[in-house]
């Protein structure tokens, strides 16, 4: 049975947003991590690992980055639950073919896999700014998402569609504030950045983790 | 202030935030006569920065000064087009550029703007056609070949992308970055033996001391290619006829060593190192 709900943590949300903001003229992508076991009814997307901004349509570093992030997740009691991407074009908010391929790869080990696509236009209108997709049984977009809090009552209808939520309703506003006032995007590094300078901690991004507590 | 901006112009540095700040100040504190020959380039530079930063009021003001001084000039028409692009009037900008090119086919700047607009309009095939036409005339335009490769990659035509990249490599044979793009494209297109030989070529182009950046990417690529070759159920043939490497085991060992070396320095990211060691099986 598909999970009932997915909740995006402040940390995961902030990292996705910072990644897109740091490289506004490039497409960017990365993976989403969770502490929730496979089969859980409510999934918390707890963290994100930013991967590429350089050649997002080329696969070698993507494959290696995925492997490395997977190993990191396993060592830390997490698993890869999904993939995210943001286009360099503000009007583009559909999952591209590369993302499609990566999500099906994630689905092979995590049937509850998802994808999130940044919707910059929606974000600027005060929405969550994320378009969610679920991978099972086949990849499909979940329309009208991020509209309400997690349901408090359990539905027994097995055909019910999963719902998506932010850990806090005012998260978009706070995240945009941190970008505008502190240029927090400059504290985030992805796998491409790490390959340029191996001192950059792309797996944990500790400075972003520290900032999230002060949001 | 004026010197910094001149330097940015000469080196094509965009830095719109800073340019806007300095340019605005310079224009406010100096009379047009005092700026001399710098005035018009400075106006143009500040105008473009204002568009980048969304300051449409200032952009409009600067544009009318330029337009008054050089009425009907193609440069000013181009600047008008950039403004249309910034305002999201992509179709109008496209028409403007196409019109200018009908009058003067060899205007490289307008060609480039038009191709950018096609890309923004998601008309990849049109962008490819225009670039191909452009490169027929300006073969030496390295940036154009790289862009053509990126466009072909976007529509999964990796063989065409590799062809475009081989022109780039002819024009700049010593540039490890282009060779790296070639290798990663070959890998993506499924020609692993070709990718492997190109990743190895990259490692020869970068100074041996540099274990980071291009070098590190290339060694990781080497490793990944050899894995693909070793785990393949049958021998991987190269579409392009690239020969396989001799003694892959030895090359693999060398790659492992070089990757580990990159993580030897001080202050390297601990988690990153751990993940890489795990990946290497070291």
TrEMBL record, chain A:
InterPro entries: EMC8/9, MPN
This protein's GO CC annotations: EMC complex
Residue ranges of domain MPN in the record: 6-139
Signal peptide coordinates: none
Taxonomy, superkingdom: Eukaryota
Family as reported in the entry's similarity comment: Belongs to the EMC8/EMC9 family.
Protein name from the UniProt record: UPF0172-domain-containing protein
Organism: Dacryopinax primogenitus (strain DJM 731) (Brown rot fungus)
Lineage of the species this protein comes from: Eukaryota, Fungi, Dikarya, Basidiomycota, Agaricomycotina
From TrEMBL, chain B:
SUPFAM superfamilies: TPR-like (SSF48452)
Membrane topology qualifier: Peripheral membrane protein
Cross-referenced Gene3D superfamilies: Tetratricopeptide repeat domain
UniProt name for this protein: ER membrane protein complex subunit 2
Entry keyword set: Endoplasmic reticulum, Membrane, Repeat, TPR repeat
Pfam families (UniProt xref): TPR_EMC2
InterPro entries listed in its UniProt record: EMC2-like (IPR039856), TPR-like_helical_dom_sf (IPR011990), TPR_EMC2 (IPR055217), TPR_rpt (IPR019734)
Function: Part of the endoplasmic reticulum membrane protein complex (EMC) that enables the energy-independent insertion into endoplasmic reticulum membranes of newly synthesized membrane proteins.
Main subcellular localisation: endoplasmic reticulum
Family the entry assigns: Belongs to the EMC2 family.
Compartments (UniProt record): Endoplasmic reticulum membrane
TPR repeat extents: 142-175
GO cellular component terms attached to this protein's record: EMC complex
Domain EMC2 TPR-like residue range list: 79-186
Assembly notes: Component of the ER membrane protein complex (EMC).
